[in-house]
Amino acid sequence: MSVQRPEAASGHGQTLARSGVTPLQAVSLILSLPLFLPLAAILFLAVTADGGGWPDLIKTVLPSMLKQTFFLAGGVAALTLVVGAVMAWLVTFYSFPGRNLMKWSAILPLAVPGYITAFAYVDYFSYSGPFQTGVRKLMGWQTPAESWLPDIRSLGGAIFVLAFSLYPYVYMSARAAFMRQPMSQLDVARTLGRTPWQAFLQIVLPQARPALAVGASLVIMEVMNDIGAVQFFGVNTLTYGIYSTWLGQGDLGTAAQLAFVLLSGIAVLIGFEQVMRSRDTLSRGARAHSPIQRSRLRGARAGAAFLALFIPIALGFLVPVLLLLHYGWRRLADLPSAAFFSAMMNSFLLAVLACAGTLFLALLFGHAMRDSEQNWLSRITRFASFGYALPGTVLAIGIIIPFGFLDARINALTQALFGYMPGLVLSGSLVALAFAYVTRFLVISTGTVNAGFEKISPHLDQVARTLGRKPFTVFREIHLPLLRPSLVTAMLLVFVDALKELPATLLLRPFDFDTLATHVFTSASLGQLEEAALPALSIAAAGLIPVFILSRNLRDAASN
């Protein structure tokens, strides 16, 4: 944000800000440069990797992975668009018993990571799981050919489960757009004889198209980042291909080439999302002059509306949580285990490091941009937060390459000077993992902190500088106290997201180092579902924190 200062308070600092780079800007620029390393490393290795290269990749594994990724992402996006838009339409334009509870509960599936929902569904509803076993016994089926129940370990099963886990992204975008639409247009449509459903299809939905596209883009990004759910369902996406190529085959070069393909798709998706955001004038505009007149539903229609909201919430939140409680109860006497406590402490350590790193950089970047009249700093720091859009597997490859190079140089230097090689100082320690967390979650802190800075009037800075306060004193005595709510929100969001992070942790964690997320993934992969239940429930319980924050923000938006 540009701050106009009085001439009496400008002095040498303002002259320096306009003529060159201030020390604060220089520090911000230097600290933002390492955040570009993962992207540069992937591009470099994808071009220079040895082996068969692109021709063999295109002839062998790439077409199948692209096909699986396309159908999974497209299927999940399509289903979430239908579910999220219908739910948002019902809670926005209709009144019925239970509406207030349903409209806030609709985002509960975000509390449970997709890989946790996936392993709960796959174990319980697979061919050998309790559900199908019970149905076969009840129906008297003796062979698999007699059963007409679908196999959940399939592309269709993955689409179904991930869609009901991710639909809240579309629901929130759609509801924000619906609430901003002028009610006069709907009144005119009803005057012309249109039914509420016709008005929704012909007027409401077309105007909300950009917001729906933004929500669907976020869903696709989450699908592309997923590695745990696709493994449980047996779907070989690009993300899982990167993971298996690197760890299973030890081929980092081919993994980097696959990461480059996935990165290209992400770039196109981000560009599309930005275009749709620029066209989304409804969710950014002012509220319509007339309040929303909700139609009251009674009887069977009210019951149908309630079920239309309750079923997605049940499938995305209640069912997996109840299944986890069931598994945990069966092993209650043996839980919690030493492995759980160790994973919990490791998760908390990484989450604290992620919070400290992202909040420090967010405050530094935000203060530098507020004190600056130069747009280049804003563009650089915004692009430096690109890490959140990178799937965890792609980010891990982009980190292991430069860190491995630095480790080699460090070992060569210590060998020459002291005759000692310390080993993997960076790439084999928590340093790489902490850097990955900071890079991935920085955008959460910067977005929240920058929103807090925008609420602080520039006049406060001007008055303080007129009274002789230096920039750092203004920051410490004025900005920090006013930013406290934004800092707490950013800290909670980063902390919970760090607890749930799986792909980058799987690839970068040191030997014999488990977090709650990797403990769940490893235990579920080995069929030890009771052992995975408690850490999975712990992650889900922590995930309720950002859900509560989102609910509060939605309430505030609805009341404005």
Judged by helices, strands and strand pairing, the structural class is mainly alpha
Main β-sheet, spatial strand arrangement: 1-2
User: Quick one: biggest sheet?
Assistant: 2 strands, parallel
Q: Looking at this structure, what is the CATH superfamily of the largest domain?
A: MetI-like
Low-confidence runs of at least 5 consecutive residues: 1-19, 283-289
Hey, roughly how much beta strand do the residues contain? under 5%
Determine the fraction of residues in helical runs and give it as a percent range. Answer: over 70%
Keywords:
single chain, 560 residues, mainly alpha, MetI-like fold, 27 helices, 2 strands, 1% strand, disordered N terminus
Descriptive account of the structure:
- This protein is an all-alpha fold and 560 residues long.
- The chain has two domains: 1-45 and 334-560, MetI-like fold (Orthogonal Bundle), CATH 1.10.3720.10; 49-330, MetI-like fold.
- The chain has 27 helices and two strands.
- Strands 1-2 form a two-stranded parallel sheet.
- Helix 3 crosses helix 21 (392-418), helix 9 (155-166) packs across helix 18 and helix 24 (471-500) packs across helix 27.
- The longest helix is centred in the middle third of the chain and has 33 residues, at 338-370.
- The chain is globular, with a radius of gyration of 26 Å.
- The two termini are 24 Å apart.
